[in-house]
Specification:
heterodimer; A: 205 residues; mainly beta; eight-stranded mixed beta sheet; two-stranded parallel sheet; 13 strands; 9% helix; B: 241 residues
């Protein structure tokens, strides 16, 4: 008999829908049920490095901010180490590197506080400091993956192997968070555009 | 052998971004091609959760928002199954989160205004961590179908939203579970964003009489499959060697 490949197939994705908050951020849906919601503290109290705030919107094809988005962030610590058993090295006690935020129902603004990640060594290739973002919402059939890089890391960015995969230099700009300062604190702005001439680069990972 | 890159996601069985019959996707679908990115450490890693993150009651939606001694109203069901990868290996210790409408098809959400009533004893969310065999289970009520604004007369089949992590950000997945025999499944523009009929079948929980608790709770089974990964059989020589 002919040999068979006995792989399973990945479960297909479906939209997170407009009520994603009930499951992943019930406080925002309007009720209190869990002892503790997950993903609100990315870096923890002991993390080294620069404390930063990152904020932005997710803009649809009509130019309007989307008000029912949920974003998840995944990042390394200031030494470029992920809080994961496969990544050699250790992170500070309480450093998760993972966070979850939703957009404001009225304005579509999202924001999270974290520390600026370090450059990440990927088997000998160095990736510039970055945060992986995953975006789900009503109307998004499968979560969108992108990366946030920092505009003030121009040198590291210019050598980043992932940024350099993007053939069009103009599109690389869509991955750069813009640095500002507010009340003495560093704030990066990162607006994600789902369509249009300056559509954000998304990755098929 | 070390774990290597993830198998490429099969974009022909996953829904594309633009699916005009699901109207909201039209202005929310990227139009340029995604950039194909081979797995780096940033995608091969992901958050780790433990039993400290969840409470045992979190997986019992019949009682996790009910007043003491009371219970949610509706058909009592167990939803259970395993989280596996594409190599058919169990994915242990991974976080599974669910949310759903109540038995009348109403969500406990400040933006849901459907006229079916809120059930005072039903919150509509649950979470758990898979065991060593990748097994998960929830107790809940079967959600009701409800109308939504897509076409003038669109109804969602009964469904439970499921979020699952796996061990890597590359495996992150949100989907919806439907129930065997529901005639609304075939008519649903959200279900039909999935181009492959066999892939749709993967989302339909089947009646599992063996797991049913007699005179108490009926059971449905749904296995979830996350992306698998190659083993590194040969190390590539470093550049320059």
């Amino acid at each position: 008999m002919r040999q068979q490949l006995e792989y399973l197939k990945e479960t297909p994705s479906q939209t997170a829908g407009p009520y994603v908050h009930i499951g992943l951020a019930p406080g925002a849906a309007g009720f209190d049920i869990y002892r503790q919601e997950l993903g609100w503290d990315i870096a923890g109290p002991n993390a080294k490095g620069e404390r930063i705030r990152i904020e932005g919107t997710v803009i649809d094809g009509m130019g309007s901010p989307i008000k029912d988005v949920l974003l998840e962030a995944w990042q390394a610590n200031a030494d470029g180490i992920y809080a994961h058993p496969e990544h050699k090295g250790s992170v500070e006690d309480g450093f998760k590197g993972w966070g979850r935020v939703i957009t404001d129902f009225e304005t579509g603004e999202w924001a999270f506080e974290t520390i600026k990640p370090g450059a990440v060594n990927d088997g000998g290739k160095v990736m510039a400091p970055h945060i992986s973002l995953w975006i789900v919402a009503r109307g998004i059939n499968i979560g969108l993956h992108t990366r946030l890089y920092f505009e003030d890391e121009a040198n590291a960015n210019s050598q980043d192997p992932v940024i350099n995969l993007i053939e069009w230099e103009k599109r690389r700009q869509t991955l750069l968070a813009r640095k500002t300062e507010r009340d003495g604190k560093t704030v990066y702005r990162f607006d994600i555009k789902l369509q249009g001439e300056d559509e954000t680069v998304f990755f098929d990972i | 052998m070390k774990p290597g890159p993830f198998y490429q996601r099969d974009r022909q069985s996953q829904p594309p971004a633009l699916t005009p019959n699901y109207k909201t996707s039209v202005s929310r679908s990227p139009q340029y091609s995604m950039i194909s990115l081979e797995t780096t450490v940033s995608e091969a890693t992901g958050p780790v959760f433990g039993h400290n993150d969840v409470d045992p009651l979190d997986q019992d939606l019949l009682t996790n928002y009910a007043k003491p001694g009371e219970s949610a109203i509706g058909e009592r069901i167990i939803l259970h199954g395993r989280v596996l990868d594409e190599n058919a290996k169990p994915v242990p210790n991974t976080l599974v989160e669910i949310w759903q409408a109540n038995a009348g098809g109403r969500y406990r959400h400040k933006k849901d205004t459907y006229l079916a009533p809120i059930d005072p004893n039903f919150g509509g969310c649950g979470r758990t961590i898979t065991d060593e065999d990748g097994y998960y289970y929830f107790r809940t009520v079967k959600p009701g179908a409800y109308p939504w604004r897509n076409w003038v007369n669109s109804w969602r089949p009964a469904h439970i939203h499921i979020s699952v992590f796996g061990t890597a950000f590359a495996q992150r997945l949100i989907t919806q579970c439907y129930f065997e025999g529901d005639p609304l499944i075939a008519k649903c523009p959200i279900v039909n964003t999935i181009p492959d009929p066999d892939a749709i079948e993967q989302l339909i929980a089947i009646l599992d009489l063996n797991a049913t608790i007699p005179l108490d709770t009926i059971a449905y089974k749904l296995d979830l499959v996350l992306r698998g990964r190659r083993s590194t059989l040969f190390e590539n020589r470093l550049e320059g060697n």
